[in-house]
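Any chance you could type out some protein's one-letter sequence along with its backbone structure tokens so I can compare the two?
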Amino acid sequence: MATNGSSIVGDRDGIYASDTDENGASNIVIDASRVEGRSGSAIHVAPSRTPTTPVTKAVFTVQNNGELVGGDGNLLFVEAPDATIRFNIDDSRLTGNILNTVGSTLDVALSNGAGLTGATRDITSMRVDNGRWQLSDNSSVGTLALGAGGEVALGDGSAFHTLNVAGNYTGSGGTLLFNSVLAGDDAASDTLVIGGDTSGQTHVRVNNVGGAGAQTVNGIELITVAGASNGQFDLAGRAVGGQYEYFLFKNAGNWYLRSQLPTAPDPCDADPTLPGCGGQVDPPVDPPVGPPVDPPVDPPIPVLRPEGGAYLANLQATQTLFRLGYHDRHAGQNSGRAWARVDGSRTRFDAISRQLDVQGNSQSLSVGADVWRNDAGSGAGVMLSSGNATSTSTNALTGYYARGKVKGEALGVYGTWRAGNAVDPYAGFYLDGSVQRTQFRNRVEGVGLDAERYDSRGWQGAIETGYAFRVGGAQNGGLFLEPQLQVGYNRWDDLRHTEANGTVVTTQEADGLYGRVGLRLSGVTRWGDGAADVQPYIAANWLHTRAASQVWMDDERVDARIPRSRAEVSAGASLKFANGFGAWAGLARQQASGYHQTSAQLGMRYAW
């Protein structure tokens, strides 16, 4: 027994075991100590040197952070024929291989937080209870038992491995971890091949290794069972590639990953003697008259991730959050030099063939001031905006959801030229323009996935014009009709974000023109002998954009059903007091097929 930090070092093998039995020295414990074979194995069980020696038997236990180091990469090398060896790893983390070369009995057990990183060859049994086995190469065992708290990781992501279990597999709540290229049916993957029967329950986790996702038919085979497939394997967490969601299916006793929803269990699995299951011959049926016609087969519906909708909602929010025009800054003619505005909106739209339902909220604060202004109302100024948006994208098929979050700022300049007249200050022509630099910090948080963070930046500019006609009322009040036209352009810095699972998210065709054309009907009424002007308004607009509201996930488009054209109606009122202060408020509604947005605005201004 090696204890208390002892160190055993051999020029070849650390421990050379031969001619032992299960009594006395055959029970070898390495307790908080180190065994090293400089050029050979840490432990070498060699053939007997005398033919009369009983069959070699030994129990090796490594516990309490004990260490084994093999210069040839082997922790335990058994080449004694007909040997019976037990190898227990208890609360220790070991790296190396366990080899059984001559068909002896070799039982391995991991417990109490033990860890093994390495490959095995022809060991009789492996039991993992509250421990972790990380395969470093293809491996083989006779039987495998995976207890609660145990994990077997078949690959490390750099190569795909196969674990062959010649006999039976028993699961008791442990976890199998596979690395797979989540793509089509022929994608590469770690695999578990079981020659015997399966029983019990096991969790299955899947890491995507560079898979772009694809629609599957049969699926990616993870587990092959030659015997009775009575074990239950349940997907733990989510398996995602590109914009696709994968689920675990059982078919003919084997287990597959498919990018479609699980179906009800096949009754033939429970009772093969049912009609049509192959175990019972159905009564003969007269052949139909005429040529045979294959029944139509509907293609499987691919299941898509809700994260795509969250990326879309973030993009849509950044495109519109700080989009301001002339009346958005002033809400009336000849208004103040300094202003502040608060906006809030609720948006809902469908995405990806209505499989995703996306709902979002946004809030923003904009402040500005004229740095130059003349008596006719022309001026130029600077403005600063800050805002945030949140969204929830839900897949109606799976119930999975993802949240999108955006926080951003904008700094811009604006200028307005008015051609009014002193006789009628509320009528006349205006030409307005603005340019803003925007930057945003974005997040997408999917259920069971790492939170994704990325930045986006862009430029936004717009030119707007309008002419207010007096259509009735007195000189110092009245009713005005104002046709308006606005044309703007968004340009975004290239966005390329790689998710933790390897999916590459990009935006394409997000740059482009947008426009608005409409009519605004406003009135002017004076209260208190001119102490205040009240200007109610109602407006109707047609909105159009050439920029695409879409992102790409691994070169597949995630398209939102945000129509390029939509209608908007708005209404509100502004107050202008004689002391130079003013305030305004309004409501707006945008509507189109599969899309709607409701927003509210509140603002204040001051003139001097």
